[in-house]
Specification:
There is one protein chain. By secondary structure, the protein is an all-alpha fold. It has 2 domains: about 1-175, Ferritin, core subunit, four-helix bundle (Ferritin), CATH 1.20.1260.10; about 195-230. About 70% of the residues lie in helices and about 0% in strands.
Length: about 230
Amino acid sequence: MVARAALAGLVIAVLGLPAPALAQPAAPAQLGAADLALLNGVRLAGLWEMPAGQMAAERGSLARVRQVGAEIASQHAELDQLVVDAANTLGVQLPTEPNADQKKWLNEMRSASSDREFDRIFVDRLRAAHGKIFPVIGAVRSGTRNEVVRKLAQDSNGFVMNHMTLLESTGLVRYAELPPAALPGDQPKIDSLQEAALARTAAGSGFSPTAIWLVVLVALLFGAVATYRLVRPR
């Protein structure tokens, strides 16, 4: 359970969803927080990437940017219908407008001083967004208990991979500025006993922080008794 909660927190953080904005199921449907976060994330992606793609189709300075924009807008309309159908099946209410960051990105595109600058913003913003959600979709696909969410994650994976390929085909992706890849096993160094205990619990190791602290306290107690026997007057 703790591991699932940790995964849900990661999904919510990566997608940029404030906790209160998460959709809630109208009835029990074997959904976890990560499932709901994916439903929200896919819906939010469509709400801003469809208008972004439409803008690119009309304003792009390069023919390839115009083609990619039109294709992404069209594919997101299809993906949006898939997530709406999934949400209706599960009794989940979805967002109806982009979040604050996504609105800011759309405004950046509208405010571009030239069509060439628009191309750069369009590709930068969409490629970064797809790169962030891509590993999250895989995590939900591999861990969800819900068949409808699993199918949506699998479909979304294909769309996102295709969109990254389309954006990269413009020749405008600045790979050196993308966040470095992180392997699933990469973890920060853990120095304290308490952090180690929490990490083991989150990983489902079966050890709790309370149990580990009890072991430490018992060891200290035995150490104190042994020391007293050595130094007490004979």
